[in-house]
Every structure is written in C-alpha cells, then in structure tokens.
Amino acid sequence: MSIFWEYYPDIAKELDNIKKIIKVNVKSSEKEFDEAISPLVDAGGKMLRPAFLLLAAKFGEYNSDKMHNLAAAIEMMHMATLIHDDVVDESKLRRGIETIQHKYSKEYAVYIGDFLFCQCFIMLSGVGYSTEILRDISKAISKICMGEIRQYNIRYARNTSLKKYIKIISGKTAALFAISFYAGSKESKCSEKISKLLGRVGYYIGMAFQIIDDLLDYSGDTNKLGKSAQSDLIKGYYTLPLIYAMADDAEGRISTILDKLLLNNDDVASIVILVNKYKGIEKAQDLANKYTKKAFDYIEKLPECESKVIIKEITQKLLNRNF
Fold first, then answer.
1. How many other C-beta atoms can be found within 10 angstroms of the C-beta atom of residue 20?
2. Residue 308: pLDDT band by 50, 70, 90 thresholds?
3. pLDDT for res 192
4. Beta strands in the chain (DSSP E)
5. In whole angstroms, how far apart are CA 114 and each of 20, 126, 149, 308?
6. Residue 212's closest CA among 223, 201, 204?
7. I need a labelling partner for 265 at 20 to 30 A (CA). Which of 58, 68, 118, 147 fits?
8. pTM metric for this prediction
C-alpha cells in the first residue's frame, strides 16, 4: 500500500482488502487480459477515492463488506477513466509503469476500460445498494465524461475563460471525489444533511487538488515540467496558470510562442517565465487556497469523530503541497 497511508494502518489494511476485491472482479479466463490489467491494479496509487468513501461511511452505520465492495467499484471506475485518458493523451507511463495503450494498443485499452465500467455496475447491482446511489454514481460518471469533452472542445483556445476551466475540472476531478464522500455516507445511513456536507467536502478537495496539480506543472521540478507541461501545451490543453497569464499578456508574447508547430524545451521555459511574469502561478495559487479554505470550512461543520480528524489531516497533506 502507498506510504501515503502509513500513519493510518487501519485504513491501509482496508485499502489492501479493496485491492483484493478489485483483483477478483477483474480476473478473467483471458491470460492476456490479466497480464495487461494486473500491473495497473498492483501499482494502486494513493487510492484516495475509496479511502474517502470509507472515511465518510464511518460517520454512519459502517458495514465493511458493503462499503469495501462500493469502494472497489468507485476505484475501478477511476481506473477505467485513467485507461481511456491514456489513450487520448497517448501516454507512455501511468503510476510509473507502461500504459496499456502503449504496451498493447489503443484498441485494447479502450476495451479494457469499457470492461471495467461494466464490472463496476455488475458489482453495484448485486449488493443491495439504493437506486438513488446507482443514479448518483451514473451522474458522476456522466460529469467526468462531459469534463473531458469540454476540455477537448477548447483545445488551443487562447481565450479560454476561468468559467470554462472551472467547469472542466469540476467534472474531471471534483465529481468523483464528491460522489466518493457522498455515496459512502449515504449508504451508511447518514442524514441527508451530513451526506451533502461530506459531498461538498469532496467537491472542494477535488477542485483544489486539480488546480494544485496544474500549478505544479509550471512551478515544480524542472524535469517534470519538461514532460508534463510541454506535453499539455503541444496538445493544446491550457490550464489555469497559463489561462491567467494569457489574459494579462496584452502583447501576445505567449500566443506567439504557442503558434509554433512544435515546442521545444526552450519554448516551454520561455512560457514558464512569462506565466510567472504575468502572475499566472500566483493567481492560480490564490484560487487553490480559496477552494482549500472552503474544504476546511465544510470539514469543520462535520460531527466530531475519528474520521473527521483523519479527513482533516489528509486534506492538509494533499492540499498543502509545495508550489
């Protein structure tokens, strides 16, 4: 399990069990399929979404079998979106391992992603979950897809607005964070008030989390910058620091660089300098801070319990990374 949970051994143990449930539900009679999907399952990542679902569920009547199955389904949905994202982005690596699309083919990756979505709904249909939760999870998946569609539709748009960017990340990232919190609490028979509170916590964590990720592409390690930011720029995906900077770049210096058919490392470095000059990073950080504050404001409204303490500590760890 990821060292992210090293100070929370009980959560780490539950996440290990969730990973086992995922392995059981993705296992097939096709050897090639198992060989393709197993490395991604084993890599795991932080497993934030299933962890948040479990923590939210502990505000109510906690049924570990029911919640572990639900958390596994949520994580499989996340995995499916990652596999499809890798196809669109032509990514070579995911969680430090070769992506399915790169190792096998784009077609194979699409099929595996589709298979995972189907398995999720099979899991959700057989354990007695409410029809409302099935509907809400389906809506969340729809928001994720629409977020990706919106992002694709505005590729290379030099006049992308803050409003459009917010719509994109609210679907791409915040929707699954929010439904993880909401579904866990709702299915553990929390009140609608508590469930909605937890859903808002997830939403604001997701919004801040994505903005911070976008910030790190422009202000983090130089090696990472060369790979992440350059790849997004070439594909026409302009994130918040760049959006803010271009809005204040009256001379159009950034646009002139982006007009090139192929950006090299020097071009990316020049863009980063201009993004800093026009305070794109500073303004994006301010917005991330606002969403972070909202997340903590909603956390404070939750009933006192161990889960509240853990959620607060984990949120602090997630959203106060170095810019």
1. 13
2. very high
3. 96
4. 93-94, 97-98
5. 20, 19, 17, 35
6. 204
7. 147
8. 0.93
**Nearest CA to 183 among 293, 84, 83, 55?**
55
Q: How deeply is 266 buried, as exposed, middle or buried, from its count of CB atoms within 10 A (0-12, 13-18, 19+)?
A: exposed
Kindly state the tokens that stand for 268.
């990316």
Residue 94, SS3 per DSSP: strand
Query: Could you give the domains of the chain?
Result: 1-129 (1.10.600.10), 158-323 (1.10.600.10)
The pLDDT confidence band at residue 96, using thresholds 50, 70 and 90, is confident
Long-range pairs for 318-321 at CB < 8 Å and ≥24 separation? 318/48, 318/205, 318/209, 319/205, 319/208, 319/209, 319/212, 319/288, 319/292, 319/295, 320/292, 321/212, 321/216
DSSP state for residue 5 in the 8-state scheme:
G
Beta bridge partners of 94: 97
Chain Cα centroid distance, residue 125: 25
Residue pair 244/163 in contact by the 8 Å Cβ criterion = no
CB-CB contact of 174 with 207 (8 Å): yes
Instruction: Identify the H or E element spanning 72.
Output: helix 64-89
3-state helix, strand, coil in the chain (%, to 5): 75, 0, 20
Contacts of 162 (CB under 8 A, 6+ apart): 240, 243, 244
